Amino acid sequence: AEYMGGFDLKEISPDYVIAHDVHLTIKALNLYARYLRWKGSHEDALVMLQYIRERALAVYGPNHVLILEIDGNRASSLKNMSKSLKDKKMAAESFQLFERVYRNRKEVLGPLHVDTIKSLHDWAKMLLEEKKVAAAKYRCNQVLDALDSRTELVGETQVAVDLATETQLTLGKLLLDSGDYSEAVIAFEAVKNLYQSSTNPNQIKVLNALGELGYAQMLAGMPEGRENMQSALDQLRPQLKPGHNFISKLEGRLSESESAPKGKSIPDVVIIDCGTNESKAILCSMIDGKPTARQIGEKLAPMIEYLKTRRALFAEFMADSAAHVQTVYVGMTGWHRQATVQDQTLAAELLEAAKEMASTFTIEKVFVSHDQEGLCEAAAVSYAAGKNGYPSTDILIGCGGGSVQVAFDIDDPNTATFFGIERGFRAAQKTLQQKGLAALPTILDDWAGELHLFLERHHVQIKPNCNMIGISSCYYVSVAAGITELEITAADALERLEAHLQRTTAPIDPPERPLVEKEALDASAVIMVSSLIKHLVHPTSIIRFRRSWEVDGQPFLTSWTMGWYLRTFVLPPHTTEASEE
Length: 581
Description:
Layout: H1 14-19, H2 22-39, H3 42-60, H4 65-85, H5 88-109, H6 114-129, H7 133-154, H8 158-177, H9 181-197, H10 203-219, H11 224-236, H12 245-259, E1 269-274, E2 279-287, E3 290-300, H13 303-309, H14 315-318, E4 327-332, H15 334-337, H16 341-357, E5 362-367, H17 370-387, E6 395-399, E7 404-408, E8 417-421, H18 426-435, H19 440-458, E9 467-472, H20 473-481, E10 488-489, H21 490-505, H22 517-536, E11 542-545, E12 548-551, E13 554-557, H23 560-570
Parallel strand pairs: 1-4, 4-5, 6-9, 9-11
Antiparallel strand pairs: 1-2, 2-3, 6-7, 7-8, 10-11, 12-13
Helix pairs in contact: 2-3, 2-4, 3-4, 4-5, 5-6, 6-7, 6-8, 7-8, 7-17, 8-9, 9-10, 10-11, 10-12, 11-12, 17-23, 18-22, 19-22, 20-21, 21-22
């Protein structure tokens, strides 16, 4: 690479490449591009890579191993250049290229080739840098599984051990970022052991791994954490210059451990999830340091109706499983936004009166805008999906009687976007109760027009091969259609939902017969979910319908209530703002 550095790029002509050993020349120039990248000359590296890629394509075609090597180099150069220029478009291009390199190597070289596994790890690191923690964790675990399978076939090699070590290191870092401190301890313990067990262990790397392990242990509340960090620092100081990154990092973390507040108390709370159709009481609490959420008591009437008919508000469940809770938060969500001024005033007066009557707990109002509701739903789903090892969630759809919340790229707080549509299944339900199934074409056209306007207004592009999670009414409709437990393509989900609608409405005759309330509610919900999938999700995307999860062995409901609890009490402060309607 240093020898090739003596050439002026302009002097390296196609004739030169063709006249000499093509394979070795292209490999040398690819190495030279890596050398340029290492020097920080990212633009020159990309020019060189484009040049040799064109030559390699002409000689070998698109699937040759050299093309794969060049594209891997291009992805890294694009990533570095996008970081130096803070160019989001270039970062997205490099991200797509990392993924394409992995998939091409998997097809050409096979899933267990070391270059294929290495490109999967490169993709995982890119996901981590993009703050797509759940997806990065998923890919890291894929790398470790592939390395295990490879070792069973060909035995242990040093290249595979090194890659496993680097992957465990990446996994440990993303687990720290996501707050999974106990799991991070396991990952960094593996890193330290792998470094120590190598033929010629690098003592600096071993001690750095000990420091990372100590930091994870400290965050997990393990007393040996500070001791391990101090031990690593004491042994690194004689071997490294003052101010070295490893030294500075450990000194900062030890200082952090001394100033960190001890015993942060996170309260158990009850949040009233008020919908236009019904309301539910959700108990959000911490069990063994892990957040959990579950419904308590029976479902309540829609909030306005409930407030009008009850005097001792929420007493039916506060005397039982939530007797220890000191605060009940009432969600002023879609029901409040769509209520008349008269009903809003009445609700405020009744809640104020209820505050005076409650003797063992206080009642507080939580005003949640449409976009904030979507943001909170996204926080809950991102947390639960990450804990369950799901790939990144590209699309999240939550919907109900009065509104729809749509979120994109929810795992990355820097690029996540949240939108609200002030339309749910309630309007179609009323129409079906008045005009019967004869109104179905009009209802479908109304949804198509609403969603087409949404896409145009927010410049949303429908991308293929995405991952979508459907919650709230999406989940309930999936239960009725029998597709809840499936990982299903959008095309298949749409086909199953339309078949379910046809099956359940077939007995209704004549079409003009007004539907009874239950018939209209069920049909309008299916129509809404089908329309959302048809117009907002690419047919090749994978859909999962979820509501009740299990996280760290505890029940976890992914509604806006849990997201609000996480953002308010559990997770570090967020700066993400919901997008404008």
